[in-house]
């Protein structure tokens, strides 16, 4: 049984009811992805700085 062609659906109530749960979930996922990306960039720059320090030969030995 198909609806008549001139039928217009204004809203899908299941989607409207799910929005209060979905919006905070997407915000949390966005924040987590932002923090992960920032930490990876910071770790990459720290590794590059450590590699530059060790390659120039001016590092001091840690043991006396």
Q: Low-confidence stretches at least 5 residues in length (pLDDT < 50)?
A: none
Q: Tell me what portion of residues adopts beta-strand conformation.
A: under 5%
Biggest sheet details = none
Q: Which series of helices and strands comes N to C? A: H
User: N- to C-terminal separation?
Assistant: 87 Å
Query: Based on DSSP secondary structure assignment, what is the total number of beta strands?
Result: 0
User: Structural class of the secondary structure composition?
Assistant: mainly alpha
Outline, from the CA principal axes?
Answer: rod-shaped
Amount of helix: 55-70%
Mean pLDDT rating: 84
Rg measurement, Å? 27 Å
The number of distinct helices, counting runs of at least 4 residues, comes to 1
Task: Give the arrangement of secondary structure elements.
Blueprint: H1 13-55
Q: Can you summarize this structure?
A:
With 64 residues, this protein is mainly α. It contains 1 helix and no strands.
